[in-house]
């Protein structure tokens, strides 16, 4: 018996979810924004719809974590810090080093920091959060859960780029993927829904949110995935371009008089995708409202659907068919029209969505039309639950 924390630390943010284990019951969740930026917002949801909220200056992650733990005690969510038996940290890049989640010791922490060049915005923030928690809760087991580890099972022909092989050997230039914890969770739930061992299934899981990735799963393992060396590759996303010809990048840099590669990467990461095409918004809900009268908003949505269909079609060929496709994450769980249109365009493969079953948001459900050869499932993701499950698995 104990309580486990799932933590996601950003450069100026801290998000958490507290679980009673082994019951896997969420007893509190919250976030702290604008750490070190002044006027930080602290939010904690707990109990039967209760909410604590305050604004104050928080100078660093040490202060943020201490405040969070103190407030959990003040609100009587925990009686003392000793009730917390594990802390799990989401870490974006595990490189080729981490093929599974890992208990954090000095060596693991150093490797997380060394891998920062693969995720310069995320790994340093995660390391900062890990150090802060270890300082305040030194005797509690800490576990790192990597976004990339699920994808380390990909065969070499799927993760290699057709560039000089020495770049892979010297610099680790290869596909790493992302959203691995989400894909892992929904794959396990899909197996439970279908009543079959995961190892016996072929699945295509679609994590469609502000960031989006599609993964082909074979024998219970990631076989291929749409994101690449970084999360910039793959399908069109809220502000990311997805796949793009590298020569076009060089061409645009010349036309726009951009000298620094990072300035161009910033455009592709933050000013492209849905917002870049539509000129309206990065939020799919906003585009849905205006698409009837705004051709660019409709184009952005059509491109989003098109890129999903391309990847699913390719993965059906790679896998030699599939038992099910899975929609998850913000858009996947809540956009009824996107799900219907994607399924309709994949009808040739025996995929079909029942419009009545599909008229739902954020509820786990088999959406398949009667007679479909390939099941279509809606499964809300739960990355935090996977994190605390990994804590329990590794600390025993």
UniProtKB/TrEMBL annotation:
Required cofactor(s): Mg(2+); Mn(2+)
Pathway(s) per entry: Metabolic intermediate biosynthesis; acetyl-CoA biosynthesis; acetyl-CoA from acetate: step 1/2
Gene Ontology terms: cellular component: cytoplasm
Top-level enzyme category: transferase
Entry binding sites for ATP: 15, 207-211, 283-285, 330-334
UniProt binding sites for Mg(2+): 8, 383
Site (Transition state stabilizer): 179, 240
InterPro entries: Ac/propionate_kinase, Aliphatic_acid_kin_short-chain, Aliphatic_acid_kinase_CS, ATPase_NBD
GO MF annotation: an example: magnesium ion binding
Active-site positions on this chain: 147
Cofactor note: Mg(2+). Can also accept Mn(2+).
CDD domains documented for this protein: ASKHA_NBD_AcK_PK
Positions bound to substrate: 90
Top-rank taxon: Bacteria
Known EC number: 2.7.2.1
GO biological process terms on file: acetate metabolic process; acetyl-CoA biosynthetic process
Reaction(s) the record says it catalyses: acetate + ATP = acetyl phosphate + ADP
Localization (cell): Cytoplasm
Coiled coil: none
Its job: Catalyzes the formation of acetyl phosphate from acetate and ATP. Can also catalyze the reverse reaction.
Family of the protein in this entry: Belongs to the acetokinase family.
UniProt subunit comment: Homodimer.
Stated name of the protein: Acetate kinase
Gene this chain is encoded by: ackA
């Amino acid at each position: 018996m104990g309580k486990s924390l799932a933590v996601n630390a950003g450069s100026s943010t801290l998000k958490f979810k507290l679980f009673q284990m082994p019951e896997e019951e969420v007893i509190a969740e919250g976030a702290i924004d604008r750490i070190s930026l002044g006027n930080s917002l602290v939010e904690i949801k707990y109990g039967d719809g209760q909410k604590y909220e305050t604004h104050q200056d928080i100078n660093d992650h040490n202060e943020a974590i201490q405040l969070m733990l103190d407030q959990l005690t003040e609100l009587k969510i925990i009686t003392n810090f000793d009730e917390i038996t594990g802390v799990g940290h989401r870490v974006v890049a595990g490189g080729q080093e981490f093929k599974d989640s890992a208990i954090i010791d000095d060596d693991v922490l150093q490797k997380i920091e060394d891998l920062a060049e693969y995720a310069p915005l995320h790994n340093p923030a995660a390391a900062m959060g890990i150090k802060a928690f270890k300082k305040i809760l030194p005797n509690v087991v800490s576990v790192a859960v990597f976004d990339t580890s699920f994808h380390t099972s990909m065969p070499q022909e799927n993760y290699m780029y057709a560039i000089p092989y020495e770049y892979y050997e010297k610099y680790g230039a290869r596909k790493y993927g992302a959203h691995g914890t989400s894909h892992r969770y929904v794959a396990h739930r899909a197996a439970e829904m279908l009543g079959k061992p995961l190892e016996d299934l072929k699945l295509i899981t679609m994590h469609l949110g502000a960031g989006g990735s599609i993964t082909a799963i074979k024998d219970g393992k990631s076989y291929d995935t749409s994101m690449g060396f970084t999360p910039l590759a793959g399908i069109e996303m809220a502000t990311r371009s997805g796949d793009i010809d590298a020569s076009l990048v060089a061409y645009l840099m010349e036309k726009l008089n951009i000298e620094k590669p990072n300035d161009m990467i910033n455009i592709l990461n933050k000013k492209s995708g849905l917002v870049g095409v539509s000129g309206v918004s990065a939020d799919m809900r906003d585009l849905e409202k205006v698409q009837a009268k705004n051709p660019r908003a409709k184009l952005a949505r059509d491109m989003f659907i098109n890129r999903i269909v391309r990847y699913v079609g390719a993965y059906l060929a790679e896998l030699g068919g599939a038992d099910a496709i899975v929609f998850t994450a913000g858009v996947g769980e809540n956009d009824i029209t996107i799900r219907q249109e994607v399924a309709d365009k994949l009808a040739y493969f025996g995929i079909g969505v029942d419009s009545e079953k599909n008229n739902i948001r954020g509820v786990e459900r088999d959406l398949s039309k009667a007679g479909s050869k390939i099941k279509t499932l809606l499964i809300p993701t739960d990355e935090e639950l996977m994190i605390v499950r990994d804590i329990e698995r590794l600390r025993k």
